[in-house]
Write a structure and sequence with these properties.
CATH class: Alpha Beta
Helix content: 25-40%
Strand order of the largest sheet: 6-7-8-3-9-10
Radius of gyration: 19 Å
Distance between the termini: 35 Å
Number of domains: 1
Bound molecules: adenosine-5'-triphosphate, magnesium ion
CATH topology: Rossmann fold
Structural class: alpha/beta
Shape: globular
Order of helices and strands: EEEHEEHEHHHHEHEHEEHH
Strand content: 15-25%
């Protein structure tokens, strides 16, 4: 579905943010992209839809190579990709419903298209999506009157209304409390499975990533250092991704053992 091959990005100031990343994501597969601050996670997902121009390498979505497209062709293909940002970039003065419908306009520029009439089927679909994400009772509320979790759900509905094949999600739970974070992750993973979407989710919280995302890709300084099951995140692997740290301290505060067990998973099980 999505194939990233030998992708590099060096910013104008000489900062090499990606140093040859290769990655495949299948339809219906949702992967967690983890790594320390500055590892290149945001750069990677923005290179996929060309919000950032890669320096070299290829990005293919289905049969289409996105790198190499420009103008109208690029805009058309971008509609196949839904973006959910950590700062839940909603239009504050508009209602929940209007924000979701704005997703229908894709990347064409909201204000340019504001006077275009929305098709009845778009409105129907927006209602169905708001029902699905649990916001049907807030349809007329302004975006600036919503909680963080509600805003993220609007962001999800807005990304899904364009019926994308791929979702790029940048830290969806960065400023949410633990319970809201889990419900947003649950919603995201369910929607990907229901709609056979491929998704890449940048996420800082390793425990949360392990709880919801079966496949984890670990990025360190622009290089993929781990690509495997969430259950394989041992202390050794976490060190290769994040650097030296006493990872046993994350295991329910017990500390001590270093027998290669996936420690964070051990903690999740202990909590249940
Ligand atoms: N516009 C830019 N110009 C120059 N360097 C940049 C730019 N954007 C990012 N970088 C650099 O590229 C590297 C990767 O940044 P990126 O934002 O992709 O990291 P990240 O993994 O998303 O980090 P975080 O977890 O903090 O969001 C960093 O060293 C950063 O300083
Ligand atoms: Mg980032």
């Amino acid at each position: 579905m999505l194939r990233i091959q030998a992708l590099t990005k060096t910013y104008k100031n000489g900062e090499a943010a990606l140093k040859g990343v290769s990655l495949g994501v299948e339809a219906g597969e949702i992967i967690g992209l983890i790594g320390p601050s500055g590892a290149g996670k945001s750069t990677l997902i923005r290179c996929v839809n060309r919000l950032i121009e890669p320096s070299s390498g290829r990005v293919q979505l289905g049969e289409v190579e996105l790198t190499g497209l420009s103008g109208g062709a690029l805009r058309r293909e971008r509609r196949r990709i839904g973006m959910i940002f950590q700062e839940y970039a909603l239009i504050e003065r508009l209602t929940v419903m209007e924000n979701v419908l704005a997703g229908r306009l894709g990347y064409t520029g909201f204000w340019n298209s504001w006077f275009r009439r929305f098709a009845a089927q778009d409105v129907q679909r927006a209602i169905a999506l708001l029902e699905r994400v649990g916001l049907i009772d807030h349809i007329d509320k302004r975006a600036d009157a919503l909680s963080g979790g509600q805003r993220q759900r609007v962001g999800i509905a807005r990304a899904l209304i364009q019926q994308p094949e791929l979702l790029l999600v940048d830290e969806p739970t960065a400023s949410l409390d633990p319970k809201t974070s889990r419900s947003v992750m649950r919603l995201l993973t369910e929607l990907c499975i229901e709609n056979r979407l491929a998704a890449i989710v940048n996420i800082h919280d390793v425990v949360l990533a392990q709880a919801f995302l079966p496949r984890i890709v670990g990025l360190n300084a622009g290089i993929v250092v781990y690509d495997g099951p969430a259950s394989g995140l041992t202390a050794e692997v976490l060190t290769s991704i994040y650097g030296e740290e006493d990872w046993t301290r994350t295991a329910a505060g017990e500390g001590g053992s270093d027998d290669g067990e996936p420690l964070v998973i051990a903690r999740m099980e202990a909590e249940q």
